Structures are given as structure tokens and as C-alpha cells.
Amino acid sequence: MESLSDLGLTELQLEIRNTCREIGEKKILPVREKYDAEGIFPTDIAKDFADAGLFGLFIPEEFGGMGGGTMDMVVAVEELSKYCAGIALSLFGTALGTLPILLCGSEEQKRKYLPRIAEGTIAAFALTEANAGSDAAGVRTTAVEDGDGYVLNGTKQWITNGGEADIYTVCAMTDPGRGARGASFFIVEKGTPGFSFGKKENKMGIRASATRELVFQDCRVPKENLIWGRGRGFFVAMKTLDQSRPSVAAQALGIAEGALACAVRYSRERRQFGQPLCANQGYLFMLSDMATKVEAAKALVYRCAQAMDAGLKDISKISAMAKCYASDVAMSVTTDAVQALGGYGYMKEYPVEKMMRDAKITQIYEGTNQIQRDVIGKALIKEAASGQI
Ligand code: COS
Questions:
Q1: Does the Cβ of 127 fall within 6 Å of ligand 1?
Q2: For 235-382, CATH number?
Q3: 233 lines ligand 1 (CB under 6 A)
Q4: Domain 123-233 in CATH: superfamily?
Q5: 199 CA distance to ligand 1 centroid (A)?
Q6: Ligand 1 proximity of 317 Cβ (cutoff 6 Å)
Q7: Where are the alpha helices (DSSP H) in 191-315?
Q8: Ligand 1 midpoint to CA 234 (Å)
Q9: Total-model pTM
Q10: Which is the closest atom of ligand 1 to the Cα of 135?
Q11: What end-to-end distance do the CA atoms of the chain give, in Å?
Q12: pLDDT digits over 224-242, tens only?
């Protein structure tokens, strides 16, 4: 083992990390400032991800992928997010959009869509609406059964990869009024009549990621595009989010590591009062706390991913813990990194202000950290009720 950061990683995971590092150094670093400033979606870099096999990482081998597990994905997302969390999101936003098919889709759906995604086709997950954010069961988009299909009407909001993706997994109400049991998930392809794109968002961070409205107006999808069965949409969403939250945790971890590295390097270069900044104990203690938080987050995120790969059944709690803790660490560490660079930290010529902006979303999306604490708390009480605590 060369360093602590290699601990517990397989040969394949070390290889994945090296591949991502190479893409980060050669492809992401030269463009991240421009893509962030101008809100450019990284179509070119997504192609590099595809060429390196990264879109196949989360797809089983029988469908043309590498058959990787959660830990493989965590390693990739963490490494890429050290360079740019927004650019990395084109990849794991696709994984999020794919999970409903992967976890709950039929054999035919898997055969039809997964090989395309493994080759680099971008996917997106569409749950959120103007009135259904944390309240995932509050979806108002409807899907009315009509002959051999369903007709969708409604608007999805803040959809990652919106407009750029070719394949969308969309939650709609088939039985409004039945709450969580009234929702169903559908696969909708770009170009389907009645499916168009609305407002593209102008965001604080992850600006290289596309976030856009999806509009459905009498959009007809065949019945074979219904995932898992009518009325199971809320459960598809919950299973998907349980599985995908470690990727947000890995994104947050990567952002924090990137910011920490920047602050440590700066502390040795910048001289004030005739000595480098790191010679001041008060300053050094701030870096020490940042580094300790990063290690603690990494331990939790890796433990979560390894437990999921080992087949842990009830993953909601550990997945929520990893996402919640790592994103809180990312916010705290990036804020301190800006402080560590002083006035320069506030300027765009250093990347820490971008990292601080990017970190914020990790506390909000895929379930706010208040929702994560709710999931953790409810799981604790359930464990106590069943005698596990
Ligand atoms: N896996 C499987 N089933 C789950 C589940 C999970 N993780 N979480 C809840 N369920 C089940 C419950 O067991 C319940 O089933 P029963 O009625 O058979 O008991 C059903 O789903 C409804 O659960 P609950 O009553 O807890 O639903 P709520 O409407 O209170 O919502 C939360 C639960 C808050 C956890 C859910 O709405 C949520 O995750 N919200 C955040 C959504 C989100 O992440 N949005 C971001 C957009 S995606 S980028």
C-alpha cells in the first residue's frame, strides 16, 4: 500500500482512480473555469468518460458494461469531483437516470437501454416538480392509461442532464389521490412527440451540469416503458435514491479533498510576516481540522459503499448518513479553504470559490440533509422497535 488513500481499494479501483485522474488532469483542468463561467455542458468530456469505459462502470457485463459495484462508482466520482463536480455529474447523473431500469426494469427494458448507456448515451432521472421536492409523493404529472400506452402531462423541474440526455426515467401519477401508491415510473426517450424542454437554470454551482425543465404535453409512451408495474413508482424512486446517494457523498468528498489540497499547497507558498502561512499554529490548526473531517467522511462513504457491495439489505440509513455527513463536510471544508486563501480565495483565479459554490448543492439535492436526518432517525427508531438497539 503506497498511501492511506489506497487502503481497501482493489487493483481495479486503483486503475479506475488513475484513469479518472488522467482525464481530470488532461481534459477537465484546462476547461473547468470556462465551462463553469459559461455554463457549458461537457459533451466532449462525457465522450472521454465513455471512451474510458466509465459509462459502463455501473452496467452489468451481460449488458455491455463492466459490472462494477457502488465502490467502483464512488472511487470514480470522488476522483473526478476533485477536478470539477459539475463535469463529473454528467456521468453519475446518468447513473441516477439508469438506476430505475437497472434495479426495477424488465429484462427487455434492460436489453434495450443498458447497452446504449454503457456506450455513453446520457440518461436522466425525473422526479422533482415545482410542488414535489422533499415530498416525493406529491408529484402532479399524470400518466393516463390509453389503449396500449400511457399519456403523460405535466412539468418536471431541475432535472440534471435535462435536454442533454437521450433517455429519461420519469415519475408520474397513474392513480392520483393514492399518494405513494399512485405513482409509476416510465422510460421516455428524447424525440417522443409531446416531450419538450423548458427553462434551463442559471445556477450558483455545478454550472457545467445542465439543469432543465421537462415538459410533457399529451406525450404518449408505450406500456412496455412502464417500469416494474403500475403504482410502484414511489418505491422505484426510494430504491434508486438509496442506491445513488453514495455517489453524491463521493462527489462531496472529492470536492472537499480538492479544496483541502489547494489550501495546503497555498499555505506553503504564501508568505506573510516573513514566513509561510503554515508556520502559524492557528492557521495550521484550521488545515488539521479540515483534513480530519475529510478522512472521517471518506471512512463513512467507503464503509457505506463496501457494505452495499457486500449485499447489506437495508441500506437507507447508511446511504443517508454518507450523503449527509460528506456533504456537510464538503461545505465546511470548502468554506474554510476560501478563508485559508484569504482575499485570493474569494477571487476566481483560484478554484476554491467554485468548490464552495459546488459543495452547496450536495447538501440539497437527492434529498436535502434535513430529509437524510429524517431517514436516519426513522431507521434508528425502527431498529429500536425491532430489538436491534
Ligand atoms: N425503500 C423502500 N421503501 C420505502 C423507502 C425506501 N427507502 N422509504 C419509504 N418507503 C416506503 C415506506 O415503507 C412506505 O411503505 P408502506 O406504506 O408500505 O409502509 C412508503 O414507502 C411511504 O413511505 P413514507 O410514508 O415514509 O413516505 P413519505 O411520503 O413520508 O416520504 C421520504 C418519505 C421523506 C423519505 C421521501 O419522500 C423522500 O425520500 N423524499 C426526498 C426525495 C428526494 O430525494 N428528492 C430529491 C429529488 S431526486 S434528485
A1: yes
A2: 1.20.140.10
A3: no
A4: Butyryl-CoA Dehydrogenase, subunit A, domain 2 (2.40.110.10)
A5: 28
A6: no
A7: 233-269, 281-309
A8: 7
A9: 0.97
A10: 37
A11: 36
A12: 999 999 999 999 999 999 9
